[in-house]
Amino acid sequence: MTVFPKVDIVTVGAGWTAGIIAQQLTAKGHRVVSIEAGGDRFANPDFAHNHDSLYHSLRTGLMFNLSKETWTWRPNPRMPSLPIRQYGSFHPGVGIGGAGIHWAAQTWRFYPTDFRYRSHHIERYGEARIPEGCTVQDWGLAYEELEPFYTQADYEIGISGQTGNLNGAILQGGNPFEGNRSRPYPLPPLFRSMPAEMFGEAAQGLGYHPFPQPASILSRAYRDVSGRERAACVYCGFCTRYGCEVDAKASANVSHIPLALDTGLYEIRTYSKVINVNLNSDGLATGVTYVDLRTGQTHEQPAEVVILSGFTLTNVRLLLLSRNEVHPEGIGNDQGMVGKNYSYQLNKTPANGIFEGRRFNSYMGNSCLQNVIEDFNADNFDHSELDFIGGASITCGGGEREPIASAHNLQASGGNTSPAASDEEKPVREHLPLPSEFGSLIGASKQWGREWKENLRKNWDSTISIGIQGESLPYEDQFLDLDPTYKDAMGLPLLRVTFEFHENDARLYRFVAAKVKDIMRAMGPTHMDTTDELAPYNIYSYQSTHNTGGAIMGTSPSHSVTNKYGQVWDTPNVFVTGAALFPQNAGLNPTGTVMALAYFASAGLKNTYFQNPNEVMS
Amino acid sequence: MTKNEAPKTQLSRRGFLKGVVITAASIPVVAAGCSPSEHVPPPQTGYQSAPPPPLNPDVPLAPTTPPNMTMLRTFTAHEARTVDALTARILPGTPDDPGAKEAGVVTYIDNMLAYQEGFVESTYREPPFAQIYDGETPPEEETSFQTVWVAADQIERYGYQSNLSPREVYRLGVIAVDAYARSKFEQSFVMLDEDQQDSIIEDMVSGDAQVGFDQIAAGSFFTVLRRHTAEGMFSDPAYGGNRDMVGWKLIGYPGAQRAYTEHDILTETDIPRAPQSLAQLHAFSPGEYSGSYTVLPVSGSEEEFPVHHDHP
């Protein structure tokens, strides 16, 4: 074992939040080391020649290596947990840049009401409207407090979009529901696809407010925080699940990581996996222990501050695994709050249409060619007469259609073959599901023979889906803990996810799916399949990598793990970043908020924390 | 990986990034705690055709030379003929209108199964495995073997849980298809005519095919076959299928392209660009860091980030 010289900050992983913090703190002269489980990879050469959809989409080549460590899942505490043996519901990354390499780069600010979810809903609708067992709460951080950091991210990274609310003035063509922006988007939106325009027109006709998807993909060349001019998107069609070959899609390793490395104060140790946050008898962290995955040797990196900046599930697991006599249940868990408020989302496609004779070029571009309506998300619409709270984004027209899964899943031009139709009927099985029988992107379509072939020939590029990204709230019976049975390759317990959709989700889905159906009908398909009811959660089909909670922020140690900076109440020299901090999820992609929170935590660290180390910041 | 205290010259980031090409090989030095030395970038002579070291060893990189279509690596000759015939019914074709057989789907599957028993995506294979029960509660069997009991109407939600490898799935699947074919038509599957073969597949899809399918479900095997047919038909030809890009021509997909314009995105055409494979895709920014090229006007002003003026 090597014990390295002590540094100011050690981070778990070198993804988005570690990259932002490393850049912000090395600029102030702090020494930072990141311990990264994966390798290094950059646009050139690693992504220069990567247009292989089998490798990236079907075989999830850039994802975290499940054979060594996975997660287990069960629907509720009464049912057994089993390991996620192959990729399905979500896609965590590994390597420099983390999941911020293969992300779709859809970038949002959460709504002001999202940050005071509980108070807002009680004020407007009364406490009775919070579902039974639902543990929603306020963040302890107001939108207004985070706004400057959202703006910092917009400009330092380079975000493309149509401004909807500039200092309270509602601007045409943007999201009229968004919180006040102090500055407009630095870049105009990306191009829209034909389906996006058709959707926009139909939605507008119904009185809704379509606008272009905001994205961390450059619509024009842009000089980002690193001082380098990055090229604009070339709409190649290989974006989500790929690394960007021209650095138009933002990631920590096109901007923040090179900048931090340039200072000489930053180091990344690749193929090195943190297995423990070390604690002393005062209950403070002294650094981390990690394994060099190539040699199997264990090393120690002492640090003043430990930052858990891995994926949501990684961070929660490390909190639970790191214990001593002061924190016998793990770091941050003195009051039993670690693992609580795990939330997910309703990422579904309630309507699919075939438009015979059309060719939409849906294989071009990226996922952000879409238009969006937010008329039925969050509390943007009156819930007084409704039987649920929350809402969903409705989106249509994302490109980069991948040929293999889309051919496999192509809807039949007669009869309802949408995947959820078979999900609903609760299949009874005599045999265990086979490898490759289900997969992240593989649905249950069974069309075959000449009929399938003619459908592929005629309609492969003639289909349009309308998707939703809905809120899914936290509940008492939905949480993360250590699995009692299954272990990783080092013999440490896997993290167990206990999660199921609840009645509020089913009602929300039913309401939004009906709206989606109206819009699709207005778009005039020759054939339409819809899924009107929410099927039970499954772990095999890809939904979103928007797993949140488990180390949530709040105003008091009895209801949260950290304060608004992500500083752990009971171990104040440990910080958590990322979506583990969200008390509940929103119906929006989380990374914009994750980035803003990383800037916010960086400001706290450099301006306040290091003046009074080991003190809880207020 | 550490940036040295090198003089701040214009190579700053480019030098660092070029260094990355060899940094991968030198990581153990850094990780072992030695001070990093200044790497000498290798000469940059066009596109580096050697693939980078795999980041995820569980997923094979595309073969650099296409698989030999006459050499079986996994299947017996009978298995290959059966899978060829099955996939040819799932996506039928003729020499003039190619389907799975003409595309070489069986070559794709045979080569896929040669890698880690067919586990070509990362897969957690640690026990205990699940066991299905029908009814309200698991049977109270005396057993010394550890399994996890899961209700028959819930197991599907957990996704892949079988202890079979993909290679075993094909071994058992071909045996089962033949057994069912013999029970229905008294001949193995490859000996049947196309209508008879279609009726076997219909029974697999509907679940009527029971005889012979003792170890794997007919519907499950069909789904696996159909998925791999799609993979062999529409993946890059480097993997052994999609021969002459016939799959992409069928659906009108142009394969690996470098870029599309707004005009491309918004223009409907019955004649998309001619498809090209990954091997045909031209090199991009050869040997240079791609970000060095600025092809459009730059927005964002230098005043935003005054600290970093020394960068190119």
Percent of residues of chain B in beta strands? under 5%
Strand order of the largest sheet of chain B: 1-2
Radius of gyration of chain A: 23 Å
Count all strands of chain A and give the number. Answer: 21
Rg of chain B, alpha carbons: 27 Å
Description:
The complex is a heterodimer of chains A (618) and B (312). Chain A has helices at 16-26, 43-46, 53-58, 99-102, 112-115, 117-125, 143-158, 194-205, 256-262, 312-321, 403-409, 419-423, 449-459, 503-523, 591-607; strands at 7-12, 32-35, 71-74, 82-83, 165-166, 169-170, 211-212, 222-223, 229-230, 266-269, 272-279, 285-292, 298-308, 345-354, 371-373, 392-396, 463-471, 479-487, 493-498, 527-530, 574-576. By secondary structure, chain A is of the alpha+beta class. Chain B has 312 residues and is mostly helical. Among the domains of chain B are: 1-44, no CATH class; 77-125 and 163-251, no CATH class. In chain B, strands 1-2 form a two-stranded parallel sheet. The two termini of chain B are 22 Å apart. Residues 1-52 and 286-312 of chain B have low confidence and may be disordered. Chains A and B meet through helix 2, helix 3, strand 4, helix 7 and strand 8 of A and helix 1, strand 2, helix 6, helix 7 and helix 8 of B.
Outline the fold blueprint.
The complex is a heterodimer of chains A (618) and B (312).
Chain A: E1 7-12, H1 16-26, E2 32-35, H2 43-46, H3 53-58, E3 71-74, E4 82-83, H4 99-102, H5 112-115, H6 117-125, H7 143-158, E5 165-166, E6 169-170, H8 194-205, E7 211-212, E8 222-223, E9 229-230, H9 256-262, E10 266-269, E11 272-279, E12 285-292, E13 298-308, H10 312-321, E14 345-354, E15 371-373, E16 392-396, H11 403-409, H12 419-423, H13 449-459, E17 463-471, E18 479-487, E19 493-498, H14 503-523, E20 527-530, E21 574-576, H15 591-607
Parallel strand pairs in A: 1-2, 1-13, 2-10, 3-19, 13-21
Antiparallel strand pairs in A: 3-4, 5-6, 7-15, 8-9, 11-12, 12-13, 14-17, 14-20, 15-16, 16-17, 18-19
Chain B: H1 12-31, H2 77-90, H3 100-103, H4 105-113, E1 130-133, E2 148-151, H5 166-185, H6 194-206, H7 218-234, H8 246-251, H9 262-266
Parallel strand pairs in B: 1-2
Helix pairs in contact in B: 2-4, 2-6, 4-7, 6-7
